[in-house]
Amino acid sequence: MSFKPKERRAAKARVAMAKAKLDALLVTDIKNIRYLTGFTGSSAYLVLTPSRVYFLTDSRYAAQSGAEVKGADIEVRICAKAVEEIHGILTGPRVGDRIGFEPDNLTYEAYLRFKKGFGNKRFIPSGGIIKTARAVKDAIELTAIKDSVGALDAGFEAARGLIAPGRKESDVAFEIEVGFKKAGADGPAFDTIIASGPRSALPHGKAGQRKMRKGELVVVDMGVLLNGYNSDETRTYCLGRPTRRQRNIYDTVAAAQEAAIKAIRPGATAKDVDAAARAYITDAGYGEYFGHGTGHGVGLDVHERPVLSPHSKDILTQGMVVTVEPGIYIPGWGGVRIEDMVLVTADGFEALTNAAKGLEDLR
Amino acid sequence: MSFKPKERRAAKARVAMAKAKLDALLVTDIKNIRYLTGFTGSSAYLVLTPSRVYFLTDSRYAAQSGAEVKGADIEVRICAKAVEEIHGILTGPRVGDRIGFEPDNLTYEAYLRFKKGFGNKRFIPSGGIIKTARAVKDAIELTAIKDSVGALDAGFEAARGLIAPGRKESDVAFEIEVGFKKAGADGPAFDTIIASGPRSALPHGKAGQRKMRKGELVVVDMGVLLNGYNSDETRTYCLGRPTRRQRNIYDTVAAAQEAAIKAIRPGATAKDVDAAARAYITDAGYGEYFGHGTGHGVGLDVHERPVLSPHSKDILTQGMVVTVEPGIYIPGWGGVRIEDMVLVTADGFEALTNAAKGLEDLR
Questions:
Q1: Which of B107, B178, B202 sits opposite A105 (nearest CB)?
Q2: Once rounded to an integer, what is the mean pLDDT over residues A193-215?
Q3: pLDDT given for residue A363 in this prediction
Q4: Do residue B107 and residue A106 have CB atoms under 8 angstroms apart?
Q5: Considering only CB atoms, which chain A residues are within 8 Å of B181?
Q6: How far is CA A94 from CA A88, A223, B297, in A?
Q7: Interface test mutation site (partner A, options B43, B108, B303, max chain A beta carbons within 10 A)
Q8: Which of A16, A348, B110, B278 has its Cβ near the most Cβ atoms within 10 Å?
Q9: Quick check: B101 and A108 CB within 8 A?
């Protein structure tokens, strides 16, 4: 039996629904809806049942959903009052009593509005059903992610020519982001981080008014959003000849990243991949300066499942796309982070990002 | 007694809290937090009590919150576990039993996480307390909005030079958006709408791959985000000499807009302002082609209170900033929308947006 991609995605979700003993799932996360239907608009609801997909949007999106949302088991409904329409679908006799919803997406206000129309049926918080399915990418998604990475790698190539003493962080970020748009991207995946000098010690130091100076470290952490899929990559450069300490910290992060990447294969625990990077940095004496997780999934969201951190319970599976991004951040002095995106393959890993790597790599 | 602006904002919110008999309000909407404290970061919580403002964020934002969040009654706490910290603040004996939260912002999942730590205290959905305060702008906000409008008006000036037969909608939008960034804006306030020909009949026709053609209507609906404040304005142009029907529909929308703007003064109901535009369009025979509300508040959000629509219960007050944006959309043929931002003054209104207006106004 051959499935089309969207049908395969719904089928994956239905397996998880069945495990949770749900008769239907109300999907409100717009990226989960895009995943299941291909709809790229910004307002819709979806109801997944064992046999049907009900897609609901309003008249603004009638033409768009007609063009984008297609499938044998998908029923598109254009309606002004989606909540009432959903009550109608789900309170019918053909749908069982256990109705799941996405508790990390539905506001409390919306929860009350839905709940009061379900009569005696149960309205059950059922987190992660679609997001878990999304962690493993199919071929169409991998192509989209690789396109996004291509535009991002080109942005790093541009960055290497733009970063120089005397230039303002935000000016460089602006030029790079214009390049993303010219390459056909929707834009940056998140606020571009260009953090120079002492600001490089801030893991989220988005580009600001600071002028870069000779001898400083510059952390560049960027992403591209292209056709709905994100990419995420970090390089750290030195504006001139690195000091011994800069070199030592950079090499430590690079080796920690390599150790983590080599631990990636189907069946590995996300915790162990994190531990590989963390152990290396800790052994080198910098453990207290690596305060975040080693990585995260990337796809329709910049941050999605799995999570690569000490407390993660995720297990890596073929088709997952994760970042590996250890860092060392010394307050007041500066920091280094190196981040690549990696695909979990049948027998190991494949690096997806390809920007030139090296502390002295500025053109 | 003289208040500083942020303290005056908290005082307004406390009046509403007292009316709702709340002993404390948990504020999770990041724009509401910015409003009360000036914090421009993307992750924080706030607890408002009758005498204190507790501001909580994590170590990433320690430096930024130290610089931005100041005030006699504000206590900044940098903590890794904000939910536990909030439980500690609110379950103490000095805080009463009625704790409000923002049900339109808190997810159901977060609701459960907070609720279970409040013991016997009540956790009460209390929508709109800060958002209602935000509807009336103070002098600092008005200055920020006028700066945003200035950059936006300049964008329309640019648009008039860029829109021409043969040009692609998305290319024009891109050039205008680069101009916004060069003017120091964070970017567009929303996806720029440039909808030409039959696409002008789509109220949300964001710029696409379509090439504009001679004789067509082009709806341009844009906004700027600058220093946290939004602007929002629409013009409709004709690429050449308008037909009689294009002219007639344009003049109808323009007159409807004028009627609505003239109805704006303190004490007027939002419903009546909407009705002024709607009656004009209905009398001209186009009522069925005006499917959205006449306007909305603009500030930290592009769409905020008050709402100008047939079912609105809002009453206009001095200091409110609203859009007035009637439109006529004829499927398959095209549409016209004209939108300006208007300040409610002590005795009437003041137009804030100033882009040249006129169907044949392309340079």
A1: B107
A2: 93
A3: 61
A4: yes
A5: 174, 177-178
A6: 11, 45, 43
A7: B108
A8: B278
A9: yes
State which fold the B5-135 domain adopts.
Answer: Creatine Amidinohydrolase; Chain A, domain 1 (3.40.350)
The kind and range of the H/E element at A64 are: helix A62-68
Q: Which residues of B275-298 are buried (b: 16+ CB within 10 A; e: fewer)?
A: bbbbebbeebebeebbeebbbbbb
ipTM of this complex: 0.87
Per cent of chain B over pLDDT 90 is: 89
Element of type H or E holding B97: none
Residue A321 structure tokens: 């796309």
Q: How far apart are CA A343 and CA A321, in angstroms?
A: 5
Q: Extract the tokens encoding A11.
A: 């089928």
| Contact across the interface for A107 and B112, Cβ inside 8 Å | no
What residues of A are in the B interface, CB distance below 8 Å?
Answer: 59-60, 63, 101, 103-109, 111-112, 125, 127, 174, 177-178, 181-182, 202-204, 291
Contact B171, B132 (CB under 8 A): no
Q: State the pLDDT at residue A360.
A: 81
| pTM of the complete model | 0.90
Nearest CA in chain A to B124: A108
Separation between Cα atoms, residue A145 and residue A19, nearest integer Å: 30
* DSSP assignments along B218-272, one per residue: EEEEE-EEETTEE--EEEEEESSSPPHHHHHHHHHHHHHHHHHHHT-STT-BHHH
In the three-class reduction of DSSP (H, G, I as helix; E, B as strand; rest coil), residue B142 is classed as helix
In this structure, what token pair is assigned to residue A105?
A: 């997406």
Comparison of pLDDT for A13 and A7, the residue scoring more:
A13
What does the alpha-carbon distance between residue A50 and residue A59 come to, in Å, rounded to a whole number?
27
Choose, out of A28, A59, A78, A107, the residue to mutate when testing the contact with B (most B CBs < 10 Å).
Answer: A107
Distance from CA of A196 to the nearest CA of B (A): 16
Residue A279, pLDDT score:
98
- Per residue in A316-333, pLDDT (tens digit) is 999 999 999 999 999 999
Chain B residues with CB within 8 Å of chain A CB: 59-60, 63, 101, 103-109, 111-112, 125, 127, 174, 177-178, 181-182, 202-204, 291
pLDDT at position A2 is 43
**Average pLDDT taken over every residue of chain B:** 95
Q: Which CATH class is domain A139-351?
A: alpha beta
Q: In what order do the strands lie in the sheet with B98-101?
A: B74-78, B53-57, B45-48, B24-27, B98-101, B122-125
Closest C-alpha among B219, B22, B254 to residue B128 = B22
Amino acid at A282: T
Q: Are strands B233-238 and A187-188 parallel, antiparallel or unpaired?
A: unpaired
Which residues, in sequence order, are CB contacts of B143 under 8 Å at separation 6+? none
Count of other CB atoms within 10 angstroms of residue A83? 15
For residue A1, what pLDDT is reported? 39
Are the CB atoms for A168 and A210 separated by under 8 Å? yes
Whose CA is closest to B217, among B196, B201, B245? B196
- What single letter denotes the amino acid at residue A47? V
Whether the CA torsion A240, A243, A246, A252 is positive or negative: it is: positive
- Beta carbons of A103 and B104 less than 8 Å apart: no
Domain ranges of chain A: 5-133, 139-351
Which architecture, in CATH terms, is A5-133? 3-Layer(aba) Sandwich (3.40)
Q: Is A256 left (phi over 0), alpha (psi -120 to 50) or beta?
A: alpha
Q: What is the structure's pLDDT at A131?
A: 97
Which spans in A116-262 are helix H?
Answer: 129-134, 139-162, 169-182, 244-262
- pLDDT tens-digit series, residues B126-179: 999 999 999 999 999 999 999 999 999 999 999 999 999 999 999 999 999 999
**Integer CA distances (angstroms), A329 to A202, A335, A336, B116, in order:** 7, 4, 6, 36
